[in-house]
């Protein structure tokens, strides 16, 4: 019987030859620790982002904060659902035959692994695109990127990730219990059917594409801000974007470091099919690297805030002395000047003066 087309037996074929073993006590301990730290970190980040969203609700930063909140909420539910299932599997001594007779738990686990893997990557790329538009096309951003449009984008991203996760189920292809017997995913051993290879390549290509889009958009945004910064002091009203760009760059670096091993491993398995040399230990290590992404993401918003960075700068200045002060004096003065220019340009008095300038020049 073809195990890939029989949902009731698909997940148990791998249990006959298990080539990868994990220590039960250590694995349960680390699973609980990771899940707890992830939940607490994401909860703290959500509180910080919601507080910031209330402050900047009517400004251009609101759309970025809304997308960031969606990313952190996704990571939080990923920890809750995937972590709870993983702890249950370890606590049950990985006896899938006993508690997964109908393969329902493995299917749910596989769907959650795909969804909570792709959705944060998609949201990270959408955030990078949003900031790129906000910096390069500010008028279009202020008129089109409203809160309603951002919520629609969040919904579309989540629905697309759900569709990718449900695709094997819709095609009557069951998710497989992996060789370590601790998680479920697409078929990664003895991949011979084109459809099994397609799912692996689709997952890895979408993830790598999201990382590439994030890199390109962040590069364009950074170059644009630097050009404006060095070109003229009078056009630096956009300096408030730098905090968001720093956070985006940190998210991109964390995602690349954590997700690249797993995405590349899945792509190699899909390309090399039955001749793949990827071992169970390699796949498990890449998976654990990917799970760190959901733990590190919230700390980007917790640590890389203006107040925290300002305190770190004060501590560094106190430790290193006047050398650091001289090194960063020009940068701090330029940021202050740009904030003053932004405040003046937004005031009604300055707008009246700007409107009266043509008439004064005509009178002269």
Automatic annotation (TrEMBL):
Keyword field contains Transmembrane helix: yes
InterPro entries: GPCR_Rhodpsn (IPR000276), GPCR_Rhodpsn_7TM (IPR017452), PglndnF_rcpt (IPR000141), Prostanoid_rcpt (IPR008365)
Record's subcellular location: Cell membrane
Record's bilayer topology term: Multi-pass membrane protein
GO MF annotation list: prostaglandin F receptor activity
GO CC terms of this entry: plasma membrane
UniProtKB keywords: Cell membrane, Disulfide bond, G-protein coupled receptor, Glycoprotein, Membrane, Receptor, Transducer, Transmembrane, Transmembrane helix
GO biological process per UniProt: adenylate cyclase-activating G protein-coupled receptor signaling pathway; inflammatory response; positive regulation of cytosolic calcium ion concentration; response to lipid
Extent of the signal sequence: none
Name of the protein in question: Prostaglandin F2-alpha receptor
Organism the protein comes from: Patagioenas fasciata monilis
